[in-house]
Amino acid sequence: MEDRERGLGTLELTADDDALALIASYSSGDCRSAYNTLEVAAQLARDAGKRIDKTIATEAAQQRVLMYDKSGEEHYNLISALHKSVRNSDPDAALYWLARMFAAGEDPMYLARRVVRMAVEDIGLAAPEAMNLCLSAKQTMEFLGSPEGDLALAEAVVYLCLAPKSNAVYMAYGAVQQEIEHTRQEPVPLHLRNAPTKLMKELEYGKGYRYAHDEEGRVADMDCLPDSLRGHTYYHPTLEGREKLLAQRMEEIRRIKAGKRQ
Fold first, then answer.
1. Which residues span the domain enclosing 256?
2. Burial class of residue 56 (count of CB atoms within 10 Å of its CB; 0-12, 13-18, 19+)
3. Are residues 39 and 111 in the same domain?
4. C-alpha closest to that of 118 among 165, 74, 72
């Protein structure tokens, strides 16, 4: 309060003992939190007689509840709460946590990026239009800025909450990445290799390749994984939303291939 070089001395404020005691109690032993609350109180007191009383200290403590260090724990707690509310299809909770982050001064572009990530990770191909909607919300935020653009992100968040959910591609891609750790040296099967030179053709590059567009059903009975992974499956679509149609299409492709083996 008195330090003019490193503190708030230049504001020439005074503070009641009970106000400082209240700030200390709210800080729960966290000195940084106490200093931050004191700074908020100082800003409020500048327009209120330059005296921090218990009323101003209470208001400052309440405002601090909304504020958080953007690289600290509360920042990650709030974005976690938002993401998990979306995943659990709870639009009311998701809107609350989104508004909390806006009120705390969060970077709107950070929120926009996280909302796009939710569409990719938790909605997926069950509602593939969700990603475009979220990207449009991001562009709207860039075009309008806050606070007008905030509503675009709010609309995207509500849509994600109510959209069908699937993490099937997310899980499949993770499984493939783990597989590659052990199979990154597997050669490309000869029938899938390009053969632009005579030597490559003599080495049977491309031999046995079947052009899908010339096949009945536009599907060839041809393995496209390395030999050691033949028959492996990674993507298991859910029966949610649009992904149910993809599951039906995959089953149709299996039937076509099986029919050509008979």
1. 185-261
2. buried
3. no
4. 165
Give the closest residue to 52 by CA, choosing from 62, 42, 63.
42
Give CA–CA dist 12/145, Å, rounded. 37
Q: Which alpha helices (H) appear in 46-193, and where do they start and end?
A: 54-66, 73-87, 91-103, 108-118, 129-144, 150-162, 168-183
* Residue 43 neighbours by CB under 8 Å, 6+ apart: none
Rounded Cα distance between 235 and 42, Å, is 57
- For tokens 């493939």, what's the residue? 176
* CATH code of the domain covering residue 48: 1.10.8
Full-model pTM: 0.72
pLDDT, one tens digit per residue, over 178-219 is 999 999 899 999 999 999 999 999 999 999 999 999 999 999
